[in-house]
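Pasting as-is:
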Amino acid sequence: MEPLTDKQIRSSFVNCTKGEAARMKLPQEFDQLPWEDLDFLGWVDPGAPLRAHIVRPRADGEPIGITLRVPSVSRTSAIKSSVCQICLTAHAASGVSLLVAPLAGARGREGNTVGIYVCADLACSLYIRGKRQPKLRGGRHEETVDVDEKIARSLGNLDSFTARVTG
């Protein structure tokens, strides 16, 4: 992923107001992000821990951003493990969260949302590349597809979710 500026990120959001985008906090250590290892930028807002954000470059080169709500209480205590719907990384139950995005436009202003189970730290790109390891009993399930195929699959999954948000 090519590095993005603060302005590019804030102007990319499709499901929040300009004021909300202006108030969001960028990731900690923003100037040190490993852009070359990212397929999309995802972070939990350090100033509002019940908000998360995803920004992904589109084919036309312009980024698209989605703001999401993070659950205040985890309801996965009975579940031993779970899988991210973007990168398909298996985690202990606490490593995956159901994030909920308001829909873009009038439907979102009416309160309509869509959810997705995703890596709680939004570090899908790093899990795909083996630069971060999930906490999972019994070890990691190895796939036979290569990293490029995993990246393409993850971006396809993220694109499908983005399409649901933008309708």
